[in-house]
Design a protein that fits this description.
Layout: E1 2-14, E2 20-27, E3 30-37, E4 46-56, E5 60-70, H1 76-84, H2 93-103, H3 107-113, H4 126-150, H5 156-166, H6 170-176, H7 181-184, H8 190-200, H9 207-223, E6 228-230, H10 231-242, H11 246-258, E7 262-266, E8 270-274, H12 275-291, H13 299-313, H14 319-330, E9 333-338, H15 344-357, E10 362-366, H16 369-379, E11 383-385, H17 386-389, H18 398-404, E12 421-424, H19 432-440, E13 447-452, H20 465-472, E14 476-480, H21 484-487, H22 491-501, E15 514-518, H23 522-541, E16 548-552, H24 561-572, E17 581-584, E18 587-590, E19 594-597, E20 601-609, E21 615-622, E22 627-634, E23 639-644, E24 648-653, E25 660-662, E26 665-667, E27 676-683, H25 693-700, E28 703-711, H26 713-721, H27 732-750
Parallel strand pairs: 3-5, 9-13, 9-14, 10-11, 10-12, 12-13, 15-28, 16-26, 16-27, 27-28
Antiparallel strand pairs: 1-2, 1-4, 2-3, 4-5, 6-8, 7-8, 17-18, 19-22, 19-25, 20-21, 20-24, 22-23, 23-24
Bound molecules: adenosine-5'-triphosphate.
Length: 753
């Protein structure tokens, strides 16, 4: 054990999560490298340590700290050094010299006790003197607060946020109601607050705990897609999470309603909403109804236009396709829906020509980058993601946003989109949150064309916007039902429609694009999957193995995403001396791996470079379901670089790797809105709640050129018969009708009826 004392000259590296730091220490003019956990240390501080000298194989000799203490500088030089180090805003080396020259050994006492005297020094006004004193004492307070918070296992990053939010009050908040942090601080959820509460000794029946737990239960439901929960389910789930009785939960609901944290609505069932969700739904419904305007236009003129478009395109539109073009001429909100190959894109092209002819300005968007790219290719018109259309600014944090209603888009009610028409494709993937944001950026008079397949699974995020809008019967809906692609010989399309109708698919393998391979056990299924993806299909569909997607209903189990990814990684991207690896909780990432972002990150930065490596575009936002390839793992910078869509480069700090997952296999749910040249689906066995018709339909329709199902025929047929999809708790359709009826009644009132 050795003792060492000196000034922190330079902090070379710090892991902000655990405080691990590498620093240069000035020991009487000699530089020493010191490593250890120093979460709260600043440059310019004077420390005294116990530790050992070790010889690091790469970095050479260094001092490994065991314990340390920040000691108040006790000589004039040290004080000058600390003040001039940049630790105190507004004081540089020259000023530090003047201050210490004036007050000598008394310097720190003067700053703390008689700060006004600082103004005696040349260059310090009275105002600046006060600012220096505040900064000086804040530094001390902050360090003290961090020490206190670390006692509850709170890391440095979070501690800074807590300190900045609460200042001195943090001690009372932590000790009396740590759950308050879940409202105020992004990154503190119920789980973290509950851990702290347990350490503080707050009982499991505390009111704060129960209220926070109820809110947490609603937020969990939100993550599963529900906008509200029926009261009895909320009470049951929250009671389970909190380890109390459903009666304990029910008792607190009224109070939460009075505090406007939740909204309770009595209807056939009693519904409980987080207040933010309730208002979002109401606003969405209102804005939709306000936008929905009917125009009286000449039908024959539109007919003439359609004939002209048909002539231009050398196409004869089906009746429904014509109806859709009439619809967009007459109504400012139109929903165009239909299964695969029913001519939706062709109809969009017809609509675009109509709008262009009318001299209207058109914007195209889709919920994912992939869908936007496909839309661009199919229409020849530049399409973008809805996030980009709304000019995401990357400043706000989503969680906090949802609660506080701030906006994270440059385009909003105060700065709406300036266009005449917005066409959104793949609408089934748009959740309530995004729809609400889009509508806020639209002014009445703007037309909205919504295109999608309402039989796809609902959005990953909460809500069921497309289906609810259709169910409300408040908008013009055109459903395309003639299948064109089938006539071109696609069995994928034909079978998708059979699945949708609940009829058995043809499994005779006489098709060129739809195959079924009966395999009866997991090992055989796995063997075939690897063979298909690695060896057989790339040649068949003229694609790389990475373009062939394994889709599975489940996350867990031998044929779930997690296990399949490990197996596929082993075969498609095996270990190699040239490829760096990074261990993570589930296993490891390797350079060359196919990965997926698994949550929306509105702040993550991306860059696009040209072939010479120059940045040509950059922005923020990487979203749930985006797929890419790991191009670099760098242990020195502790970052992984991922290339998304072959163009966008994103860097992930090691601390954020939980946002990434291997993506050789993904759940069918996550594959929504994407299309792949070839899809392979293991369907062998699994829980009935997952193996339902819509899931199969969504999986099958993801395949563009080739689909292979491997597994059990009986399971496949029972999946087609199983329509018991889990209910999504949303009330947008109800809300639309409710608001529409209210305004009709208001209208009648005006006429005295
Ligand atoms: N009226 C029509 N007459 C002849 N062929 C048509 C017609 N409408 C569409 N098609 C053809 O049918 C095929 C599928 O059409 P389209 O791509 O527009 O459908 P979609 O609904 O967008 O399909 P998906 O969602 O699967 O991409 C295309 O090859 C298209 O050229």
């Amino acid at each position: 054990m050795t003792y060492l004392k000196g000034y922190v000259d330079h902090i070379r590296f710090r892991n902000e999560d655990n405080g691990y730091t590498v620093l240069s220490l000035d020991v009487d003019g000699d530089e020493e490298t010191v490593v250890g956990l120093f979460p709260f240390l600043n440059e310019g501080e004077y420390i005294s340590m116990e530790g050992d000298y070790v010889d690091h194989p790469v970095h050479g000799p260094q001092f490994q700290m065991r314990t340390y203490e920040i000691v108040a500088p006790d000589d004039i030089d040290s004080m000058e050094r600390y003040l001039g180090s940049g630790a105190i805003k507004g004081i540089g080396p020259a000023l530090a010299k003047r201050i210490t020259k004036k007050f000598k050994m008394d310097t720190f006492r003067v700053i703390e006790e008689e700060p006004e005297r600082l103004a005696e020094v040349k260059g310090i006004s009275e105002k600046k003197a006060r600012a220096i004193a505040v900064e000086f004492s804040e530094k001390q307070e902050m360090r003290q607060a961090m020490m206190f918070l670390s006692g509850y296992g709170i890391n440095n990053n979070l501690a800074v946020k807590i300190y900045k939010e609460y200042g001195d009050h943090l001690y009372t908040i932590i000790q009396e109601n740590p759950y308050k942090m879940t409202d105020d601080i992004a990154g503190v959820g119920f789980k973290i607050a509950d851990e702290i509460a347990k350490k503080v000794g707050i009982g499991s029946n505390s009111d704060y705990r129960i209220i926070s737990g109820i809110f947490y239960t609603l937020m969990r439901a939100l993550n599963e897609g529900h906008v509200f929960l029926p009261k009895h389910i909320l009470c049951r789930n929250a009671a389970h999470i909190l380890g109390v009785t459903p009666e304990d939960i029910e008792e607190h609901l009224l109070e939460m309603m009075i505090d406007r944290k939740i909204v309770i609505e009595e209807d056939k069932e009693t519904r409980v909403y987080a207040a933010s969700q309730y208002h979002m739904e109401v606003n969405t419904a209102r804005m939709l109804l306000d936008l929905n305007i009917h125009y009286d236009i000449s039908v024959s003129e539109v007919e003439t236009m359609i004939a002209m478009i048909e002539e231009n395109e050398q196409i004869t539109f089906a009746e429904k396709q014509k109806e859709a073009i009439h619809a967009v001429a007459e109504d400012s909100i139109v929903i165009l829906t239909g299964g695969p190959g029913t001519g939706k894109t062709t109809t969009i092209n017809g609509m675009i020509q109509y709008f262009e002819h009318e001299g209207l300005d058109i914007r195209l968007a889709a919920p994912t980058g992939r869908a936007a790219k496909r839309m661009t290719e199919a229409t020849g018109y530049q399409a973008m993601t809805i996030h980009r259309l709304l000019e995401i600014n990357g400043e706000a944090d989503k969680e906090r946003d949802l609660r506080k209603g701030a906006t994270m888009f440059e385009r909003n009610a105060g700065n709406p989109l300036e266009t005449d028409v917005i066409i959104i494709d793949e609408m089934s993937m748009v959740d309530l949150y995004l729809m609400n944001a889009l509508l806020q950026a639209m002014v009445p008079g703007t037309r909205l064309v919504i295109v999608g397949d309402s039989n796809q699974l609902p959005s990953i995020g909460a809500g069921n916007v497309l289906k609810d809008m259709i169910a409300s019967e408040q908008f013009k809906v055109v459903e395309l039902n003639q299948i064109f692609r089938q006539e071109e010989g696609s069995h994928i399309v034909r079978n998708a429609h059979l699945i949708h109708q609940g009829r058995p698919v043809e499994l005779d393998n006489k098709s060129r694009d739809f195959f079924f391979l009966q395999r009866n056990n997991i090992q055989d299924v796995l063997g075939v999957l690897v063979y298909l993806v690695r060896d057989k299909l790339p040649g068949y569909v003229h694609a790389k193995p990475y373009d062939i997607q394994v889709l599975t209903p489940m996350r867990k189990g031998e044929l779930g995403v997690e296990r399949l990814n490990q197996v596929m990684q082993q075969y498609l991207n095996p270990p190699s001396d040239e490829k760096k690896e990074k261990e993570v909780a589930f296993g490891l990432f390797r350079e060359g791996d196919k990965v997926m972002q698994i949550k929306n990150n509105y702040q993550l930065e991306w860059e696009m470079r040209n072939s010479k490596g120059f940045t040509v575009d950059k922005g923020v936002g990487v979203f749930n379901g985006d797929m890419g390839i790991i191009t670099e793992i760098n242990d020195y910078t502790e970052k992984i670089t991922v290339l998304f869509d072959e163009t966008k480069e994103v860097q992930y700090a090691y601390a954020n790797l939980d946002e990434l997952e291997l993506a050789y296999a993904v759940t069918i749910h996550k594959s929504q809105g994407s299309e792949y040249p070839a899809v392979v689906m293991p369907i062998l066995s699994g829980p009935r709640v997952l193996f339902h018709r819509n899931l199969l339909y969504t999986g099958v329709t993801r395949a563009r050129n080739c689909l292979t199902i491997v597994g059990d025929r009986n399971m496949l047929f029972s999946m087609i018969q199983n329509v018991n999809e889990q209910r999504r708790y949303t009330t947008l359709a109800y809300r639309l009708n409710q608001i529409a009826n209210e305004s009709n009644e208001d209208g009648m009132d005006e006429f005295g009826l």
